[in-house]
Amino acid sequence: MPDETLRSWLALVHSKGAGPAVLNPFLRSGITPEELLAEPPAQLGERQRLALKNPDWTGVEADLAWLQETGGRLVPQDSPDYPERLGALPDAPLALYLLGDPKLLTTPQIAIVGSRNPTRGGEQTARDFASHLARSGITVTSGLALGIDSAAHRGALEGGGPTVAVTATGLDRVYPASNRELAHAIIEQGGALVSEFPTGTAPRPGHFPRRNRIISGLSLGVLVVEAALKSGSLITARLAAEQAREVFAIPGSIHNPLARGCHRLIREGAKLVETATDLLEELAPHLQVYLGEAVEPENRPGNDAPPPALDPQYQDLLEAMGFDPVSTDRLVERTGLPPETVSSMLLLLEMEGRVASVPGGRFVRTGNSTP
Question: What is the pLDDT of residue 306?
Fold first, then answer.
């Protein structure tokens, strides 16, 4: 991105009083950031035009210094790395600050959220779900908060996958500070830290709902593990429903106050799930779009092409499995395909009923697996 273009996007972000909901209609009509700054549209109010005429250039320079020092990225709306699902929201962030791998933003993501003070069982459940999803090739997204958020990030890392943490502060600080080590591990394992807030931004109550809309906006669906009736994770679930995302909740004991938020969500239409497989089955149509494209062979025929699970690449994978249980690592050795590709293909084959998972993290062909 040219330096002047980068400065223009940062200037928009630092135009206090002219936020995404106001500026997005103009940007989507083809007006550039440079044009908005040079001549604010007459349709805007006086305060908004003044904001565009007088951005916080000190903040812009601070961001530029941070980007250079850390190797961070700014992902504006016109970047190919800006996630399409998030960009469709009326109040989509003008740009995202990012540390880590920007390609993760466009992978299939499932958000896991819940109480900051979960039970030990709830924390383990979040960890187990996240680990299963990561092994299935899904990116787990959460908010880097204490409790369920942290458990979800750690579970994804334990499952060998990357995870995306969306923060309510600038990326020059970690909140809570006790999660600095976790934030570092997320980056080290190929994940990403994401925020719409400039450097120097401290945590404030109003920032968390804004962060939550990004968590749900990035995701195909949101899973609430444990939540009290006034939990902030219910805000994320509400935003997800408003964004036409799937909402899932795990039920609990009627005597557990942290189950009441989940029970309310289920009464209001959230889908009850008991296992990560339940969740994957519910999202199968969405995942097939993402993962089917991800493993699609080059130069594939057009409309006459067979379904993904019958493609030659899938036939080769089934043949490589043989008829005994086999691990993903062994299939990687036999096929020469990348681990993430094999995991994605196995997920689709499992959804089609052509393979089944068995104890020990292995897979076996079923009676429906004739290529």
Answer: 36
Q: Give the span between the Cα atoms of 229 and 264, in whole angstroms.
A: 8
The model's pLDDT over 6-29, given as tens digits with 9 standing for 90+, comes to 999 999 999 998 999 999 999 999
Phi, psi of 149 (to 5 degrees): -55, -50
Q: Which CATH architecture has domain 295-365?
A: Orthogonal Bundle (1.10)
How far apart are alpha carbons 300 and 297 in whole angstroms?
Answer: 6
Query: If DSSP codes are grouped into helix, strand and coil, which group holds residue 81?
Result: coil
Q: Which tens digit of pLDDT belongs to each residue from 210-219?
A: 999 999 999 9
Task: Tell me whether residue 271 is exposed, middle or buried, using C-beta atoms within 10 angstroms of its C-beta: 0 to 12, 13 to 18, 19 or more.
Answer: middle
> What does the pLDDT look like over 99-116, one tens digit per residue?
999 999 999 999 999 999
Cβ pair 240, 222 in contact under 8 A? yes
- Asked if 96 contacts 105 with a C-beta cutoff of 8 angstroms, the reply is yes
- Looking at the chain, the domain(s) classified CATH 3.40.50.450 span 102-282
pTM: 0.78
What's the CATH code, domain 102-282?
Answer: 3.40.50.450
Tell me the CB-side half-sphere exposure of residue 194, using CA atoms within 13 A: 32
Pairwise CA distance, residues 34 & 78, whole Å: 13
Q: Which two tokens stand for residue 339?
A: 């681990």
Residues of the chain with CATH 1.10.10.10: 295-365
| Structure confidence by residue, pLDDT tens digits, 290-302 | 665 443 333 323 3
Give SS3 for 119: coil
Residue 365: its H or E element? strand 362-365
- Phi-psi category of residue 322: left, alpha or beta, with phi > 0 → left and psi -120 to 50 → alpha: left
SS3 readout for 2-66? CHHHHHHHHHHHCCCCCCHHHHHHHHHCCCCHHHHHHCCCCCCCHHHHHHHHCCCHHHHHHHHHH
